[in-house]
Amino acid sequence: MAAVREPEVPVIGVVINAIDDATHKNDVSAWDWDLRSLDPLRALLETAVSARRAVILTSDHGHVVERNTEALSISGAESRWRPASTGVAGDGEVPVSGPRVVAPRGEAVLLWRDDAHYGPRHAGYHGGASLAELTIPVLVFQAATVATGAAGWEQAAPQVPLWWNDPIGPARATEAPPQPSGQPKKTKKTEASGQGDGLFELDDLPTPSAAPAGLVEAVLASTTYAEQKRMAGRRALDDGTAEAVLRALVERGGRAHQDTVAAAAGIPIADVGQVFAAVRRLLNVDGYGVIELDTDGVTLRLDERLLREQFELGVER
Fold first, then answer.
1. Minimal CA–CA distance to 254: which of 212, 215, 302?
2. What domains can be seen in the chain, in order of their start residue?
3. Does the pTM exceed 0.70?
4. Which of 68, 132, 177, 179 sits a CA distance of 20 to 30 A from 153?
5. What is the structure's pLDDT at 171?
6. C-alpha span between 65 and 157 (Å, rounded)
7. What percent of the chain has pLDDT over 70?
8. Phi, psi of 214 (to 5 degrees)
């Protein structure tokens, strides 16, 4: 950590091999990977914060998790690749070659299917050409106490896909109700969901519905809203952010994960708490809970009836 604290050293590279090691020794499919399970990373981030350094977090590869994968026996093969000299590529394999292929003569055969491996069984595998192995993160972090980053860089809103936190609707029936006796029995399959092949076959996720006609616009145009902004003074939230937050909640039935709302409104992760506090000051007239954080600590709740009442918009019919 001494080099991290040394301002004359511009760039320091650190390799943390904890996840790689764990997949060869333990079943990690149910592990919750966070800073509590990655002590070296936590120590590195703490030191970087005190040194006011930015941290670029990436990986050299991903992993295929062991889920009853097929074991292929080929002499000389590693978990997910084998030398080209062991035979031509077959089903589920792809040949690769070139100066970046670290194998004899720069040639190798990789498994691209994610339901197979060579050799002994482990909790996870890497070295092949599946999407899970080839996809890596590139994330840039800086301390929240640092006001600005590198020139041309902006703080990002939450990057988790919106569907990750959205609720899943009830599944549709896969067959038609039984027909009365004497009539031919027909089955009706559901249409393709558009989700593609995956671990779970999901029906179409509910898409956000349009906000009730003019509700968001009516709130922002109301005299109560103008008075709330006047009382907030220089701490008042800008209309664009207030509109985006309100619309994201209204379109999702009054409940949404805070990351979903932040992403929809373009709110940087570091500013989420501050912005949502400003939203509550603006919309919670006289302290009434028009917008509140749920008991789970991550879900925002909008009381539309109370919103209409407090901003004197009338009851929806």
1. 302
2. 67-121 (no CATH), 215-310 (1.10.10.10)
3. no
4. 132
5. 52
6. 29
7. 83
8. 75, 0
